[in-house]
Amino acid sequence: MFSATVSTYVKRVGEISRGLAHEISGGLRLAADVPSFARILSDILLSRLIGRLPLPNHDQDRMIRVRGGIELHYRLNRGDIQSIREVWMDQCYRLPFDVHPRHLIDLGANIGLTSLWFARRYGCTVLALEPSAENARLARLNLDRNGVTAEVIEAAVGPRDGTALFQDALESNHGYLNSAGEGRPVTVMSMATVLQKVPAGAEVDLVKMDIEGGEGPLLAANLGWLQRVRSLIAEFHPTMIDYPAAIKSIEDQGFRYFPAHSAADFDSMDAFLRMAPPGS
Questions:
Q1: Confidence at residue 58, expressed as pLDDT on a 0 to 100 scale
Q2: Which CATH number fits domain 2-274: 3.30.1490.100, 3.30.930.10, 3.30.70.1130, 3.40.50.150?
């Protein structure tokens, strides 16, 4: 019993040490100056305490400068910190195919970190949907302060236009549309309506999707909108949707599927590339 307890403790210490080393090296690669490195590293450490200890500055606005003359605005919130780690340190939205998007639609933009990452990498314009008012505020700030041509719409995406109840979560990146009758009302836009915001005839080079289970109903509905889309990258939520059915629904629209974690040199998301030009 004692031996098993020690072994578990040693394993946990090793996991924490490896995670901390990864975050230190990621912060060094990311930060443009010493104060920004110190801030992001301290905020990562503090985020581990959220929910365990009362933090008087929890959810306080923060800013760091990262390489390339970029400002990242976020809050001392576990969800915001996780998004910085995943999107900017680990670059989890790198595309596993050669597409250089000019027009990006970001479904579930959160605080705009992914939109900003794509815009600075490719110079694309951004149309972002985010149902949380506070997240949308930061998304606008991140895109504005970094000179990105973007429109942030405070709305969720769904199979049809209307309203739905949105359930906020303790972690800022886990809010979701709640069919159980709890939450606050938000606007829901169908993809047909979203695409009316894109210049007529313009190809949507990339749709990024992270909508906390909302992808299930969206991909079970009319998918004619995919005819204007060249590629998608998505964070699916297999415990909340029929994951194989969602993948097949996109493949059936003429897309090749690149499974998550299948890229050779980085940890990729699920991605899809149209095998024929949109509209063909």
A1: 81
A2: 3.40.50.150
